[in-house]
């Protein structure tokens, strides 16, 4: 019987909404979902590990990856480049495993063009005031950069109509529960299963 292809789950939303925190909590609960590590030219934050949180690259290395078409998507965001290495994603899906991409909105829209069958989830903050608080509490950005991120965030929130689902990140455990429910429902969609069950009927 033909193996069911894995599900590409794309989790994105404005900077500071908690994508990384929600993604990490989801992976702790559901080890069947693999994490696709993005490449970036931004500097590592305290505690981040190369090859685990991101593949940290110089701008020269990143541009070489673009030229060699080694990225599923890439985007420049607040002066840094982010992208998704394509080989690992395709290999994982072909093995029937689910993989989650935690990426910025620009990148998610590029993935949608190449993988329209993916599951696209937009993570929303409870409010813009709360979003600003989360960015400020990181303690890693200047006031100018915070203001820049808030301006970008407002534009990104207006793009949520390009996603399949919207999940509010009010409490991390609640956001994780909502995402898990969406993934289960997507695996039960008839267009993903119809060929599998046709084969069962024809084998009788």
UniProtKB/TrEMBL annotation:
Domain of life: Bacteria
Keywords for this protein: ATP-binding, Cytoplasm, Kinase, Nucleotide-binding, Transferase
Family affiliation: Belongs to the guanylate kinase family.
Residue intervals of the Guanylate kinase-like domain: 6-184
Organism per entry: Anaerobacillus alkalidiazotrophicus
Localization of this protein: Cytoplasm
Record's protein name: Guanylate kinase
Gene Ontology molecular function terms on file: ATP binding; GMP kinase activity
Binding site for ATP: 13-20
EC number: 2.7.4.8
Signal peptide: none
Catalytic activity of the protein: GMP + ATP = GDP + ADP
């Amino acid at each position: 019987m033909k193996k069911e292809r894995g599900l590409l789950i794309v989790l994105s939303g404005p900077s500071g909404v908690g994508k990384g925190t929600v993604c990490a909590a989801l992976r702790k609960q559901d080890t069947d979902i693999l994490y696709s590590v993005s490449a970036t030219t931004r500097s590592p934050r305290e505690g981040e590990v190369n090859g685990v949180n991101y593949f940290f690259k110089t701008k020269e290395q990143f541009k070489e990856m673009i030229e060699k078409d080694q990225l599923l998507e890439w985007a420049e965001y607040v002066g840094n480049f982010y992208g998704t290495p394509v080989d690992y994603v395709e290999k994982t899906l072909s093995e029937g495993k689910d993989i989650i991409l935690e990426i910025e909105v620009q990148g998610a829209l590029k993935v949608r063009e190449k993988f329209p069958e993916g599951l696209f989830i937009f993570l929303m903050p409870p409010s813009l005031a709360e979003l600003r608080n989360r960015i400020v509490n990181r303690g890693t950005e200047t006031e100018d950069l915070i203001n820049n991120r808030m301006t970008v965030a407002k534009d990104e929130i207006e793009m949520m109509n390009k996603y399949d689902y919207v999940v509010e990140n009010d409490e991390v455990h609640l956001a994780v529960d909502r995402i898990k429910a969406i993934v289960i429902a997507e695996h039960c969609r008839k267009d993903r299963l119809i060929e599998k069950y046709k084969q069962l009927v024809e084998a009788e």
